[in-house]
Here is the input.
Amino acid sequence: MKDGPTAPIVENVFGISWLSFDLSIVMMVIITSIVVLLIGIWGSRNLQMKPTGVQNFMEWVVEFVKGLVTDTMDWKTGRAFLPLGLTLIMFILVSNVLGMVTTVIIDDKQWWTAPTADAGITLTLAAMVVVLSHYYGIKLRGFKAYGKGFFAPIWIMFPFKIIEEFTNTLTLGLRLFGNIFAGGILTTLILGMSFNAAGDFSIFGFIGSIIPMLAWQGFSLFVAGIQAFIFTLLTMLYLSHKVVDETIDGH
Here is the structure.
């Protein structure tokens, strides 16, 4: 039986034995960033009072993310996080869609995959969110007031609060990774129906895979949007917990 595709891994980067990276992930991150940039430029060109097309879509995205911000904190505090929310939801959505709609395999190397199907990418995004939440918590509330939150309501909660920071990072990153990685595997399996055991193209297998693929494509777009929404919403929640003084707001 033919083995599945492998990732184009580059090992011993800069002569460091433990340092390696996946060329396909690097390429897909660059492609995703370019696509998001182009969408932003396209949607902001020739702005009109009555938006149409891409401008209409971008304004809807802005209002949607603004709603996530205002649902988790007051707008005066949260408006600074609108650009972050827009960047996250667009980057994750495009990443998910690019990887879940198809796959590209060349010489048994999988070159086209979702960047968010790599745990290193999703955990990096999650770690960035957690670090930013601490940074803005200290910046907006002050180091002393912010630090007291780790000992509330009693000092014995401190070790649990530290553990919570690590679990938040893991759950935020691994939730996104698990869903998109599983979707990529299913896409590969459905496409694999077009080939026989010897690895040769089969017209009957291709015809049999059309309906499952069309059904999965529709569902995959839904999953891509939901995961981008969940990650962005949780980001705003984590930020609100750090920047809002609960003892003052009475939450």
